[in-house]
Amino acid sequence: MQVGSAEGLRLARGDDWRTLGEVTAEAFAADPVATWTFDGKPCLRPVFQRLARDVYLPRGICHLADGDLGATMWLPPGASKELPGVSLLGAAARLLIDGGPRAMARALAVDAEMARRKPKAPHAYLFTIGVRASARGKGLGRRLLAPVLAACDAAGVPAYLENSNPANTPLYAGAGFRTLDVFSPAPGCPPLAAMWREASA
User: Fold this and answer.
1) Spatial strand order in the sheet of 124-131
2) 75 neighbors 125 (Cβ within 8 angstroms)
3) DSSP 8-state symbol, 82
4) Each residue's pLDDT tens digit, 150-173
5) CATH of span 9-197
6) What gap in Å lies between CA 152 and CA 132, rounded to an integer?
């Protein structure tokens, strides 16, 4: 997949991991699943920064909006979302310190159920899209989705995401995603909607 950028966006570089994590953490601060998983503890920024640095920047496709007002993290078909061994140990230690054992247990349970339900067919995977509170309601989410979805269409590649916030359903539906299933990834956790988008001709 050849992915470009678009007006008002740029492809993130390897040294953008702090910014990607910060923007995404702010965007997910009130996310129902993230809030439940991390039990309201200050875990989001370090978790997203580590994943940006060690998974999504080296293996995936990430965009930042001008002014760092929004961000996306994608993986192309076949790319692994697993943290490397040393990074995984560091992430576990940090999560235990910041969130405690309950946040760790919930994060593992949610991740395992998401992995179990992930479609087997090759696809581009949207891990996160986030817009800072000050920039919401201005169409930035649609613009952030556009470059990778255009590349998916050109390559004939479907796309997949788990929607953790029902408020975002119109954005995804407007971009061509349809809901495959709605499920709770762990007892007591708010629901996730598995959404799939076929490539457009």
Assistant:
1) 9-11, 61-65, 70-75, 124-131, 159-163, 192-197, 178-183
2) yes
3) P
4) 999 999 999 999 999 999 999 999
5) 3.40.630.30
6) 26
Phi/psi of residue 84, each to 5°?
Answer: -60, 155
The sign of the CA dihedral 60, 74, 94, 131 is: positive
Q: How many CB atoms lie within 10 A of CB 56?
A: 27
Report which DSSP code applies to 83.
P
- Map residue 16 onto helix, strand or coil: helix
Summarised one tens digit per residue, pLDDT across range 5-46 is 788 999 999 999 999 999 999 999 999 999 999 988 889 999
CA gap 102, 95 in Å, rounded: 10
Q: How far apart are CA 131 and CA 23, in angstroms?
A: 7
Q: 20 vs 77, 92, 118, 185, 195, CA distance in Å? A: 21, 20, 24, 25, 23
Q: Token pair for residue 163?
A: 């929607």
List the beta bridge partners of residue 131.
Answer: 70
> Nearest Cα to 24, choosing from 85, 80, 65, 75?
65
**Tokens describing residue 129:** 């899209």
Reported pTM:
0.94
